[in-house]
């Protein structure tokens, strides 16, 4: 069983959780609440860059969230069937990370201010692009005929959009809505979203724990 070391929150670990679920890899969350635990991981040489998240899997200790995601993705066949698909997946994956990044400061900065920027700038920039890609592919997925890391990367941002703005966020983007509905209806993904592995929205408690562990 894999172990994911992180705070009790979404942050940079939620996509790893999503990918582990999609890959049907059993895992447990190891939440860090005290700085001593973090220092111990560093002293034991398990944190290559002295930062979280940390994924313990197959006898390895992996850091850097995108490296963790890609390792899991390769194990589960989520990286494309050929070089062309792999390149397309990589582009869309990175675009999904850019789409998601503006959500990360929520709670660390005034929520209303962050959401206004997302609504007025982030969503109008990225949703038309992903909708066009989804419409061109026409399968309910972004690349090919099945789930890939591209879908999961974009899904994390879409889940946040729905959480904060409702399903109305898909108005004018029917192909992207189809991707959202297709992926969230998969047993692995729907099961994850209902499980204890799906973290609640970040809140003041999360900020306090992060600051305590990292000595901010």
Write up what this structure looks like.
InterPro entries: Glutathione-S-Trfase_C-like (IPR010987), Glutathione-S-Trfase_C_sf (IPR036282), Glutathione_S-Trfase (IPR040079), Glutathione_S-Trfase_N (IPR004045), GST_alpha (IPR003080), GST_C (IPR004046), GST_superfamily (IPR050213), Thioredoxin-like_sf (IPR036249). Belongs to the GST superfamily. Alpha family. Residues 82-210 form the GST C-terminal domain. One of its GO terms (molecular function) is glutathione transferase activity. One of its GO terms (biological process) is glutathione metabolic process. The protein is α+β, with helices and mostly antiparallel strands and 216 residues long. It folds into 2 domains: 2-76 and 192-214, Glutaredoxin (3-Layer(aba) Sandwich); 83-185, Glutathione S-transferase Yfyf (Class Pi), Chain A, domain 2 (Up-down Bundle), CATH 1.20.1050. It is 56% helix and 8% strand. It is built from 9 helices and 4 strands; from the N terminus they run E-H-E-H-E-E-H-H-H-H-H-H-H. The chain has helices spanning 14-22, 35-43, 65-76, 83-100, 111-137, 149-165, 174-184, 187-194, 204-214, and strands spanning 2-6, 27-31, 54-57, 60-63. It has a 4-stranded mixed beta sheet, with helices on one face. The radius of gyration is 17 Å and the shape is globular. The two termini are 32 Å apart. The mean pLDDT is 98.
């Amino acid at each position: 069983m894999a172990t994911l070391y992180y705070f009790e929150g979404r942050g940079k670990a939620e996509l790893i959780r999503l990918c582990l679920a999609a890959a049907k890899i059993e895992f447990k969350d190891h939440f860090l609440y005290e700085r001593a635990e973090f220092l111990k991981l560093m002293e034991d040489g398990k944190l290559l860059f002295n930062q979280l998240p940390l994924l313990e899997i197959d006898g390895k200790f992996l850091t850097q969230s995108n490296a963790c995601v890609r390792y899991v993705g390769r194990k589960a066949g989520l990286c494309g069937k050929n070089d062309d698909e792999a390149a397309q997946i990589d582009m869309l994956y990175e675009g999904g990370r850019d789409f998601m990044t503006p959500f990360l400061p929520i709670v660390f900065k005034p929520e209303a201010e962050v959401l206004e920027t997302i609504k007025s700038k982030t969503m109008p920039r990225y949703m038309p692009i992903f909708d066009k890609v989804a419409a061109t592919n026409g399968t309910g997925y972004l690349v090919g005929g099945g789930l890939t890391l591209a879908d999961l990367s974009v899904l994390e941002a879409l889940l946040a959009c729905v959480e904060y703005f409702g399903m109305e966020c898909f108005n004018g983007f029917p192909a992207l809505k189809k991707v959202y509905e297709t992926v969230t209806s998969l047993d692995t993904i729907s099961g994850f979203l209902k499980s204890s592995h799906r973290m609640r929205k970040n809140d003041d408690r999360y900020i306090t724990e992060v600051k305590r562990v990292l000595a901010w």
